[in-house]
Amino acid sequence: MITEYKVNRKLFDEVMVPCYAPMTMIPDKGKGSRIWDQEGNEYIDFAGGIAVSCLGHCHPVMVKALKEQSKKLWHLSNVMTNAPALRLAKKLTEVSFAERVFFTNSGAEANEAALKLARRWAVDVYGPEKNEIIAFTQGFHGRTFFTVTVGGQEAYSDGFGPKPGNVIHVPYNDLDALATVMSDKTCTIIMEILQSEGGIIPSNPVFLQGARELCNKNNALLIFDEVQTGNGRTGTFYAYEQTGIVPDILSTAKSLGGGFPIGAMLTRGALAAHMKVGTHGSTYGGNPLACAVAEAVVDEVSKPEVLMGVKERENWFREGLETLNVKYNMFSEIRGQGLLIGAVLNDAWKGRARDVVSAAGDEGLLVLVAGIDVVRFTPSLVITREEVEEGLARLDHILAKLVSV
């Protein structure tokens, strides 16, 4: 029998590995874009579990899928397949360029699979010398040792001993720098269409087109990391759809399960053929419970009214943030795409993004940072107008207090 009892933030320090510094409050329940803590205090959620809770908390279609599948099958080894995984894989190929899917539990694992596929393909087709991976400074691709090394932020990768080799970093949006390091030894370029953790930095269309052409010229693969931008976050199911550039491999996770852990690597059939039986695997990847929930999420998010609603909600946020900036003059720029929005702090407020996040939490509003100078907003894709207006009103109160100190 499981004994439930009230816990507090002090217990975190006693029993958890100190990789995080969570808020003092302990969330207890959520509905839509609202969360309540153990004391009954209400919070407006503009963070969405870091771009995960795409349908908000406890959305009916997710709850229904979870309940129904929980009465059937929870887990199977990959000695067998299962119906939810096959249905979900089929739907992901229908909403993308891809022909094949490999399921994982997270974005890091999806990127790990993508990078392993790129190297395996290069070895099979061109030989072991073609193994260089090109990535970008301020990029982020996960927390495994391989993906954190590929991600271009040394703060995350230093201090763990020798790093995986043959990984080159160049400045994001710098096509000349990219062209300089590309060679016949390059097996892949991996990039975010919109750098998220690095500061909500959009890609330049000329840069994207140039990266695709350099891959074609040098017989290299192009990997798009859409862990944060995928599943409707930017107003199309995948952000690459708005660019005219098609990748060879795509990674997806975060909002794919709407809060249930799942990720996936998507690619074409000819490339997938290089990952033969035994070359890669995942104990929980393709779990029927996760896939059933993700299938419900994909069905809901891919509805035209949901995707069109993302752009409408983007406008609500942009207009609200611009209005606040007229009052408080804290932001130099509001940037991003869809409901992946960054408010960039101006010179007078540089380095104080965490101060804003902390103050917001104290006033019942959940927001994020993207580096030390950007306040990030990644709410539910179906957040209501009322929730947006109430959250922005709380932000108004928060900024007023900060500027008065």
UniProtKB/TrEMBL annotation:
<dbReference type="InterPro" id="IPR049704">
    <property type="entry name" value="Aminotrans_3_PPA_site"/>
</dbReference>
<dbReference type="InterPro" id="IPR004636">
    <property type="entry name" value="AcOrn/SuccOrn_fam"/>
</dbReference>
<dbReference type="Pfam" id="PF00202">
    <property type="entry name" value="Aminotran_3"/>
</dbReference>
<feature type="binding site">
    <location>
        <begin position="225"/>
        <end position="228"/>
    </location>
    <ligand>
        <name>pyridoxal 5'-phosphate</name>
    </ligand>
</feature>
<dbReference type="InterPro" id="IPR015421">
    <property type="entry name" value="PyrdxlP-dep_Trfase_major"/>
</dbReference>
<dbReference type="GO" id="GO:0030170">
    <property type="term" value="F:pyridoxal phosphate binding"/>
</dbReference>
<dbReference type="GO" id="GO:0042802">
    <property type="term" value="F:identical protein binding"/>
</dbReference>
<feature type="binding site">
    <location>
        <position position="282"/>
    </location>
    <ligand>
        <name>N(2)-acetyl-L-ornithine</name>
    </ligand>
</feature>
<feature type="binding site">
    <location>
        <begin position="107"/>
        <end position="108"/>
    </location>
    <ligand>
        <name>pyridoxal 5'-phosphate</name>
    </ligand>
</feature>
<keyword id="KW-0055">Arginine biosynthesis</keyword>
<dbReference type="InterPro" id="IPR015424">
    <property type="entry name" value="PyrdxlP-dep_Trfase"/>
</dbReference>
<keyword id="KW-0663">Pyridoxal phosphate</keyword>
<comment type="similarity">
    <text>Belongs to the class-III pyridoxal-phosphate-dependent aminotransferase family. ArgD subfamily.</text>
</comment>
<dbReference type="GO" id="GO:0003992">
    <property type="term" value="F:N2-acetyl-L-ornithine:2-oxoglutarate 5-aminotransferase activity"/>
</dbReference>
<feature type="modified residue" description="N6-(pyridoxal phosphate)lysine">
    <location>
        <position position="254"/>
    </location>
</feature>
<dbReference type="GO" id="GO:0006526">
    <property type="term" value="P:L-arginine biosynthetic process"/>
</dbReference>
<feature type="binding site">
    <location>
        <position position="143"/>
    </location>
    <ligand>
        <name>N(2)-acetyl-L-ornithine</name>
    </ligand>
</feature>
<keyword id="KW-0032">Aminotransferase</keyword>
<dbReference type="InterPro" id="IPR017652">
    <property type="entry name" value="Ac/SucOrn_transaminase_bac"/>
</dbReference>
<feature type="binding site">
    <location>
        <position position="140"/>
    </location>
    <ligand>
        <name>pyridoxal 5'-phosphate</name>
    </ligand>
</feature>
<protein>
    <recommendedName>
        <fullName>Acetylornithine aminotransferase</fullName>
        <ecNumber>2.6.1.11</ecNumber>
    </recommendedName>
</protein>
<dbReference type="InterPro" id="IPR050103">
    <property type="entry name" value="Class-III_PLP-dep_AT"/>
</dbReference>
<keyword id="KW-0963">Cytoplasm</keyword>
<comment type="pathway">
    <text>Amino-acid biosynthesis; L-arginine biosynthesis; N(2)-acetyl-L-ornithine from L-glutamate: step 4/4.</text>
</comment>
<dbReference type="GO" id="GO:0005737">
    <property type="term" value="C:cytoplasm"/>
</dbReference>
<dbReference type="InterPro" id="IPR015422">
    <property type="entry name" value="PyrdxlP-dep_Trfase_small"/>
</dbReference>
<feature type="binding site">
    <location>
        <position position="283"/>
    </location>
    <ligand>
        <name>pyridoxal 5'-phosphate</name>
    </ligand>
</feature>
<keyword id="KW-0808">Transferase</keyword>
<dbReference type="InterPro" id="IPR005814">
    <property type="entry name" value="Aminotrans_3"/>
</dbReference>
<keyword id="KW-0028">Amino-acid biosynthesis</keyword>
<comment type="subunit">
    <text>Homodimer.</text>
</comment>
